[in-house]
Amino acid sequence: MDSMRGMKGNTVLVNGVVSPVLKAKKSLLRLRLVNGSNARTYHLSFNDNRVFTIIGSDGGLLEHSIKANTLRLAPAERVEILVDVSDGGRPILQHAAAQESSSMGGMGMMGGMMNNERQDMDIFQIDASDTLKSTSSIPKNLVKHNNPQQSAVSKQRRLVLQMQMGPRMMLGGNAFSINGKTMDVNRIDEVVKAGSTEIWHLENTSMMPHPLHIHNVQFKVIARRGGVKGHELGFKDVVLVHPRERVSVIMKFPEFRDAKIPYMYHCHILEHEDRGMMGQFVVV
Ligand SMILES: [Cu+2]
């Protein structure tokens, strides 16, 4: 079960520490959160439901700061937030598991219980009881993005994320594939032109969500079910693709080219990439 869904432990570490407390001044705190878990997608909010400000994504600052009280962070995704603790509060950042199991397709209750799937978790606490008080304001506009242009798109590709049930899944073989192929280090799957702009359509036909990670480029999400929101408005290199969802991303590839040494794209649930859900592309 773990190698199919990805191992989800029952203890979360922050910088190697269980349930740490971050001593802070009464101020505006800037935090960069990296989901280093191999399989768990976090649904984060503070226990006092305080509003925070999202300012960055995988690839840097957003164009505009965004107020939120919850965010989703899939394996390997990064987000940057500002938390106002000038009130001297002691908020706890928490993961709400119910949010995740609702997106797990037909996997049901049993898998959930076996896999710590339904476990809510305290991630860490901020203790802003320190006396010094500083104030700062949050700018609305942060940076201007140089977005890849739809009019420059020279190629569109489809990556279909699949899983095979039955004996192959149960016996631990290569049960996860992209476009029907499992990872082969001796095969180049896609050839991309240096400096070109492309749209990739990521289609998940399996019953599990897959955080797809593409090396070498930063992309913009241009279409997904329910629209593009929050930190997904920024430049990204990982995007969560839900069961039966199609996510489209646009990207301009760097000018650097090398016909021999490939880059990878893969699911960032480690058990899935280990069992085949990875491909290779070269830039020429
Ligand atoms: Cu996956």
UniProtKB/TrEMBL annotation:
InterPro entries tied to this protein: Cu-oxidase_C, Cu-oxidase_fam, Cu_oxidase_Cu_BS, Cupredoxin
Gene3D superfamilies noted in UniProt: Cupredoxins - blue copper proteins
GO function terms (MF aspect): copper ion binding; oxidoreductase activity
Superkingdom in the source lineage: Bacteria
Species the sequence originates in: Bathymodiolus azoricus thioautotrophic gill symbiont
UniProt keyword list: Metal-binding
Official protein name in the record: Bilirubin oxidase
Domain spans labelled Plastocyanin-like: 171-283
Pfam families assigned to the protein according to its UniProt record, in alphabetical order: Cu-oxidase_2
